[in-house]
Specification:
heterodimer, A: alpha/beta, FAD/NAD(P)-binding domain, 19% strand, B: mainly alpha
Chain lengths: 589, 239
């Protein structure tokens, strides 16, 4: 029999970004809140300090801030004709673990989605006709609009101290910003980053072709900043150890520097670390959660934490695993298209183009910051005419200078041998003289891409692993290659000696790193037969369970997901505070 | 003991730094207490192959040392003797199947077991009289390309799996901080112009095209130079 803890009002599963935000909101409302984190406590001091933090091998290669696959991993196959096998060592994506979650090791590229991104199906059908969307795509509307989310985007950006330049201020297009963005109610809280050399070379070429470059919105501080919660963040030192690293300078918007200390001060909040949740407990008719069951990883004891409200705040696809292992909702079946849990797993369709320069051009790529980049948004979403193109969505194109740690960064031109003296000479010749352009594309949900429980493999706690069935749909491949061709045109004007276009081929592989933007599986929507949670991220099936994070995305737009994760968390928290607490039950009927 | 290891012990830790004229940062801090001069995991026969192989993967040139000279064999040895070698952070539950390339590593072997098994198979391939290390450079490269192409079968698996692991570990050791036993005297960082662990470019990143030629700094040096954040600025702790 598990040990039974004293009941609380709210239990949060996973203590990363969304749990910190929602925990603070609900603790402030006077509720007793317990946060359960499978990993350990850590803070900027001492855990993220140099010199030890500037260790590429430990953090970027051996992945010490990331989920340990020895304990928990996934199985993977491209389609249902294959047998899924375990992802034995993480590659293409890197979920976080420990207090602060992935918002400790993120880069800080903080975007809003386009207004049309929230109504993907109805937008394309009304503009291009009912037959425009390929039959294999299962894209849906979100059930929430950009205008509804705008105040919550704004609140998150002010919490996180985002540096940027408005491109659309209350409908007025402003020079220097992203002219394609939805209207924002006020300026960013901090000034934009300045142009790195790679960004300047890209911007000049993009301007020549009539595009409108701007600086990527950055959660690496561009000034000393005190946020509305009273937390002070420090300016970014541009050290080049950002993605996959914790920030030693209090300069990247992690929960630890922007909010968590304020939550920890609350007497009615308790954090328990090394508390690995294995199940949401339900009453016999599966209509109400009674709490969660977790393993205390110190004592190995099973512990029941009763709670009136259960909020899943772990990495998106891990929320899906917990829903499936708890028997909440109906698992998605790709043969019938019925069921909702695991449906519309999507990713991010990445491609790249490299420009190789003469030795006289010092790019200094190591002078980097996670969100230091210059982008154009002309080919994202439906910012360009899709008539006759045969695909949905798009990508932003950016010249990022995020750092150039040499185990993983040593670009060489195509045709260079993979080892030997010629490889070594090429590495030496090109390390400081190359610019890579990132094509950061949308990922449209498809009928055959989904998550379920693996029938064979288990984690260290005996639970089935989450099985991922995924390949890039044709629409995404066409999109990536189209934007790559446009990017190559820009790259040819950037003054290099050689332009090397990458293309997006299939099948998807879990081996090379691509991005940790795994979305869907517990998608939001307005219809309980086609979505797992309603517009407030509340489970349709078990109304005292809310599911935060990018698992809610019905498909993944062509931007980094964290800005919208933050906006949705505040949107959901407000609905819980102002509606659910007064009248616990379904917020949408 | 191998020839290069014996020389290092006799001549002292800064020998490599002097030999390659790589600047003023002596490599003493990376060579403390005999680190990188004795093998903890590899047998003598195994070490002979590794030393010869990594030198072909990243060869020495007159000005820029290769993988063997900067200690990569010792880096790999220390990795295999430690948590990485034991399969730290590697999911090793069965059942095991061959899988597709896009499904990644699927062997039931830890990295240490992978090396031991593969090096034994390679030793059998050559026999004791003419080991790999005794081949000409061209013949060494030919054999490594066979491994790379998966032309050997090692205990039921493709030699390409071992080759890719060896190549990845060689690149790691060549470019990782010297604290791990390779990249002695930060030779690889000097070669490409990476300034290393000490990093704060807020004042200079907007000076486009700047020739930035400060000598690199390793973590061990930063520990003595950097001004750290002294006191915790955050409230609260795990309760």
């Amino acid at each position: 029999m598990p040990i039974r803890k004293k009941p609380v009002d709210v239990v949060l599963v996973g203590m990363g970004l969304t749990a910190t935000m929602i925990g603070k909101e609900l603790a402030e409302a006077g509720l007793t809140v317990v946060g359960l984190e499978r990993g350990v406590w850590r803070d900027t001091v001492p855990d993220f300090q140099s010199p030890a933090m500037h260790d590429e091998l430990r953090y970027a290669v051996r992945q010490h801030l990331h989920q340990n696959p020895e304990l928990e991993t996934y199985t993977f196959r491209n389609n249902t004709n294959q047998t899924a096998l375990p992802i034995r060592t993480l590659g293409s994506f890197l979920p976080g673990t420990d207090v602060g979650g992935a918002a400790v090791h993120w880069n800080g590229q903080t975007w809003r989605f386009l207004p049309s991104d929230f109504v993907t199906r109805s937008h394309y059908e009304s503009k291009y006709g009912r037959n425009f969307i390929p039959a294999d795509l299962t894209v849906q509307d979100w059930g929430v609009t950009y205008d509804e989310l705008e105040p919550f985007y704004d609140r998150f950006e002010y919490l996180a101290g985002i540096g940027g330049q408005a491109g659309n201020l209350r409908g007025e297009i402003k020079p220097g910003g992203n002219p394609f963005e939805g209207p924002r109610s006020r300026e960013y809280p901090n000034p934009p980053t300045k142009l790195a050399y790679a960004g300047a070379l890209f911007a000049n070429a993009a301007l020549e072709l009539g595009y409108r470059p701007f600086q990527v919105p950055s959660a690496n501080m561009t000034a000393t900043y005190t946020n509305p919660e009273g937390m002070t963040l420090q300016p970014c030192m541009v050290c080049g150890f950002c993605e996959r690293f914790g920030c030693e300078h209090f300069a990247k918007s992690s929960p630890q520097v922007m909010l968590l200390p304020k939550l920890m001060e609350k007497e009615n909040f308790e954090l328990r670390t090394q508390a690995h949740v294995i199940k949401v407990l339900l009453d016999p008719d599966k209509k109400r959660a009674t709490g969660v069951l977790y393993i205390d990883l110190d004592s190995r004891a099973e512990i029941e934490q009763p709670a009136d409200l259960v909020i899943l705040c772990s990495f998106g696809i891990n929320n899906v695993k917990l829903l499936l292992n708890s028997g909440i909702g109906r698992p998605y079946d790709p043969r019938t298209g019925e069921g909702t849990i695991g449906k519309n797993y999507s990713y991010q369709t990445m491609a790249s183009v490299s420009v190789f320069y003469p030795e006289s051009v010092n790019i200094n790529p190591f002078m980097g910051a996670g969100a230091l980049g210059t982008a154009i948004d002309d080919y994202n979403g439906d910012n360009f005419d899709h008539s006759g193109l045969g695909f949905l969505g798009g990508a932003y194109v950016a010249a990022y200078t995020t750092g150039a740690r040499p185990i993983e960064y040593h670009p060489v031109p195509p045709g260079t041998p993979r080892w030997g003296v010629d490889w070594k000479k090429a590495v030496r010749r090109h390390y400081n003289h190359t610019v890579g352009l990132t094509i950061h594309g949308s990922s449209m949900s498809a009928r055959g891409n989904y998550l379920d429980l693996d029938p064979t493999y288990v984690d260290a706690y005996g639970q089935p692993l989450l099985r991922m069935t995924f390949d890039f749909p044709d629409s995404d491949v066409k999109m990536a290659n189209y934007v790559a061709a446009r990017t190559t045109e820009i790259a040819r004007l950037m003054g290099g000696e050689l332009v090397s276009p990458g293309d997006r081929s299939t099948p998807y592989s879990i081996v090379p790193y691509q991005t940790t933007h795994n979305t869907g599986g517990a998608i939001m929507g307005s219809d309980p037969t086609t979505s797992a949670v309603n517009r407030y991220l509340q489970s349709w099936d078990v109304p005292n369970v809310f599911v935060q994070g990018a698992s809610a995305y019905p498909q993944n737009p062509g931007y980094n997901p964290t800005g919208t994760v933050g906006a949705l968390a505040y949107w959901s928290a407000k609905a819980i505070r102002e509606q659910y607490l007064k009248n616990p039950g379904p917020l949408v009927r | 003991m191998t020839e290069i290891a014996r020389r290092e012990l006799l001549q002292g830790a800064s020998a490599l730094g002097l030999a390659f004229a790589l600047g003023s940062h002596a490599s003493a801090q990376t060579q403390a207490a005999g680190q990188g001069s004795v093998y903890l995991f590899f047998t003598e026969t195994e070490a002979q192959f590794i030393e010869a192989a990594v030198e072909r993967l990243i060869p020495s040139e007159p000005e820029w040392p290769g993988a063997r000279a900067v200690g990569v064999p010792y880096y790999i040895d220390l990795q295999l003797a430690g948590p990485y070698g034991r399969g730290d952070r590697l999911y090793l539950r069965g059942p095991f199947a061959v899988g597709l390339p896009g499904q990644g590593y699927q062997l039931a072997l830890t990295p240490a077991q992978l090396y031991r098994t593969s090096l034994a198979a390679i030793a059998r391939e050559f026999g004791p009289s003419t080991p790999f290390a005794s081949l000409t450079d061209a013949d060494k490269d030919r054999f490594l390309r066979r491994l790379e192409a998966g032309e050997l079968t090692i205990d039921g698996f493709s030699s390409a799996i071992f080759f890719e692991t060896l190549l990845a570990n060689t690149i790691e050791g060549y470019f990782a901080d010297p604290a791990y036993g390779g990249n002695r005297d930060m030779a690889s960082w000097r070669m490409i112009g990476f300034p290393g662990a000490f990093a704060a470019y807020a004042a200079v990143y907007t000076r486009h095209g700047l020739k930035f030629d400060r000598a690199p700094m390793a973590m061990a040096e930063v520990a003595h130079h950097d001004d750290h954040h002294a006191a915790p600025a955050t409230a609260g702790a795990a309760r």
